[in-house]
Design goal:
The structure holds two protein chains of two kinds. By secondary structure, chain A is an alpha+beta fold. Chain A contains eleven helices and 15 strands. The model of chain A has no long low-confidence stretch (mean pLDDT about 85). By secondary structure, chain B is an alpha/beta fold. Chain B has helices at about 50-55, 80-90, 105-110, 120-135, 150-160, 180-195, 205-210, and strands at about 5-20, 20-35, 40, 65-70, 70-75, 90-95, 165-170, 200-205, 215-220, 225. A six-stranded mixed beta sheet of chain B has the order 6-7-8-3-9-10. The chains are: A alpha+beta, B alpha/beta. Chains A and B meet through α1 and α9 of A and α1 and α2 of B. The structure holds adenosine-5'-diphosphate and magnesium ion. The site of adenosine-5'-diphosphate has 12 residues of chain B, from β1, β2 and α1. Magnesium ion binds near residues 49 and 50 of chain B.
């Protein structure tokens, strides 16, 4: 079968070398595939980046405790008494200053998104010193920490970047109260970088929340093990609460959003892929028509139909593959690492970066190759069936 | 010269359906072609010359009747068998040369050899020999677009003979060329017939071209009127 392989090699090479004769149509197909892949990768990297950000937020060694059924921090209410009761629970780390428990308040305030100048909700978290000590990645990178009792806030680095008016020293009005930005903090890639933080007692008094909190974070003796606390809450009638590890909590918050990005992205990419497929089919049928005499001549000489089939198919696959690579490159240059913000699970903004994964790359190239395969298959079939008689057709 | 029959056509019918209409080109055509002859087929446009060539080349099939090649029918071979048969026995020469525009002369000539189990150096030797025979060894590296019509047809002839086929089928090989260039081509064909024993069937509407053949058949309305040119 050595001769069949050399026939196919020769025909494939001829097809590819004749590409410049169809340069514009071929380029159009190539770009159509590139755009489809770039759009798909944009969505996939968005979903991935969002997931990464949220994944980095959750710690296995912290538990998040909310009022039963409230699902998100924003919807929960916890009283002072409940906080005190919970501090007695087993399974919580106890240090020199007592149990590592942080009762936090979580409210939303207005912000203006730099890119679109639209008004969005930003989370303002009231937190105590012990709450800050629970956050491992926390550092002040500019200015200083807020002082308890003063209307001072520190802002996450993502907030500073994505929303206007939060520069160091600025005064801000939230409702009837005025606040000053005294510092900027970083918290790894986590969602906390999209938050504003202040002293919990100050926030309670300024927002008329009395002594109530919305969420309790506790340090777990055994990372990931919430069994003891859950059991304690179940047995204590005054406590009606849900316990999750912090990692689990943010995973759940993120899932709905990344699912939406994913399920919006794929259908859009597929709709566009159908357009690119129509273009590829058109280009390849054109290629076959243009090469009909050449194909027939080769058939007259004795070349097999399968070589015409494969030559056409490979041409289509090569176009699609280059398009796919181009789309990947474009996505990489345009989207990778750029940051975006979107509504998190609790209707506040979460700032995250687009992150291209190797998985997304494989999916993009696969989609391109499917376009190339289907777009090449039917024209290739036609190529293999060009009547040999065409070689003798009178028109040159 | 051997007088064995290369081709025998017995009661060949050929008709095309064009829409609802059926056009009959041949109705009970009989002919034979001897090994080693140079046969010219003449006739007005539309008389069926190309159709006959297609039938002889196993490129098209008769509607009825038999086409015998060295005594065995080719009209019932499968497509794959016909491809193989063509590769082994026929060199085609076309009016418009039908070279692959993206391959240089040597690569074009090499094409039929890709169907055979030959080493690269064997292929190169055969290509060199064929190009030398048509006087184009100096143009081996040229693209078809860099060659004149006559030179392109010579490359096409080299391609037709490179795998040493039994016979050549030429459809108006000089139809696109001026007189002087046509003569060069015809002299090459005559050489191939006389010195190398290739059987040649050449379709032409040019009486001057037909004079290079050893026999000439006139096709008119699907029938032959025979004239012997070999004096
Ligand atoms: N594939 C085909 N389908 C329908 N009609 C055809 C086909 N090929 C040839 N014909 C018709 O058959 C007749 C003979 O054609 P052809 O053999 O090409 O003539 P010539 O080569 O002598 O000019 C013409 O009338 C032509 O229109
Ligand atoms: Mg004709």
């Amino acid at each position: 079968m050595g001769s069949l392989i050399s026939q196919i090699q020769a025909v494939v090479a001829m097809n590819l070398r004749s590409l410049p004769q169809r340069i514009w149509m071929s380029l159009a197909t190539l770009f159509a595939v590139a755009i489809v892949v770039a759009v798909l990768l944009a969505f996939l990297s968005m979903a991935n980046g969002f997931q990464q950000t949220v994944k980095n937020t959750g710690s296995e060694s912290l538990a998040v405790i909310l009022r039963a059924g409230s699902q998100a921090e924003l919807n929960s209410v916890i009283t002072r008494d409940q906080v005190n009761l919970l501090s007695e629970a087993p399974g919580i780390v106890r240090g020199d200053k007592g149990p590592k428990v942080s009762a936090e308040l979580y409210v939303t305030v207005d912000g203006i998104k730099r890119s679109s100048q639209t008004e969005v909700n930003l989370p303002l978290r009231g937190i105590s010193e012990s709450g800050i000590s629970l956050r491992e990645g926390f550092t002040i990178i500019e200015g200083r920490m807020f002082e308890p009792g003063k209307n001072e806030i520190v802002v996450g680095s993502s907030v500073l970047r994505e929303f206007s008016g939060f520069e160091l020293g600025n005064s801000l009005r939230f409702g009837k109260t005025t606040w000053t930005v005294v510092g900027v903090f970083e918290a790894g890639a986590s969602v906390f970088a999209s938050e504003l933080w202040t002293d919990v007692r100050t926030l309670q008094s300024q927002f008329n929340r009395g002594s109530s909190a919305q969420v309790i974070r506790v340090a777990l003796q055994q990372p990931g093990d919430i069994g003891a606390i859950t059991e304690y809450i179940d047995k204590e009638p005054r406590l009606n609460m849900d316990v999750k590890t912090e990692a689990e909590y943010y995973q759940e918050q993120a899932k709905a959003m990344s699912d939406m990005i994913f399920f919006l992205g794929w259908p859009l990419a597929i709709a566009m892929a159908l357009g690119a497929l129509a273009g590829a089919l058109n280009t390849m049928y054109n290629s076959v028509a243009q090469r009909a005499v050449e194909i027939a001549t080769l058939r007259a000489i004795g070349f097999r139909g399968v070589s015409a089939f494969l030559g056409t198919l490979v041409e289509s696959l090569v176009l699609a593959f280059i398009g796919g690579l181009l789309g990947t490159l474009a996505a990489f240059l345009l989207f990778d690492g750029i940051s975006a913000s979107t509504l998190g699970g609790s209707f506040t903004q979460i700032v995250f970066s687009f992150e291209l994964s190797s998985d997304a790359f494989v999916q993009g190239i696969t989609l391109a190759m499917i376009i190339g395969l289907v777009g090449g298959f039917f024209p290739a079939l036609k190529a293999s069936r060009v009547p040999v008689m065409v070689a003798f057709s009178v028109d040159p | 010269m051997s007088q064995k029959q290369l081709f025998e056509l017995n009661n060949v019918n050929k008709s095309f359906t064009k829409g609802k209409e059926e056009i009959t080109i041949f109705n009970g055509l009989n002919m034979s072609i001897k090994e080693g002859e140079f046969l010219a087929i003449m006739g007005p446009s539309g008389s069926g010359k190309t159709t006959l060539l297609n039938l002889l080349g196993g490129v098209d099939r008769p509607t009825a009747g038999d086409i015998l090649f060295r005594g065995s029918p080719i009209n019932n071979l499968s497509e794959g068998q016909l491809s193989k048969w063509r590769a082994e026995h026929i060199g085609f020469i076309f009016q418009f040369y039908n070279l692959m525009p993206m391959l240089n002369a040597a690569r074009n000539v090499e094409l039929p050899l890709l169907l055979k189990k030959l080493s690269r150096s064997q292929r190169r030797n055969s290509v060199d020999t064929a190009l030398k025979l048509v006087g184009l060894e100096a143009r081996a590296g040229h693209q078809p677009s860099e060659l004149s019509g006559g030179q392109q047809q010579r490359v096409a002839i080299a391609r037709a003979i490179v795998s040493d086929p039994t016979f050549l089928l030429c459809d108006e090989p000089t139809g696109d060329l001026d007189r002087a260039t046509a003569v060069e081509i015809l002299e090459i064909l005559q050489l191939l017939n006389r010195e190398f024993g290739k059987t040649i069937v050449m379709v032409t509407h040019d009486p001057a071209a037909a004079e290079y053949a050893s026999r000439c058949l006139h096709l008119d309305k699907g029938e032959f009127i025979e004239k012997d040119l070999a004096a």
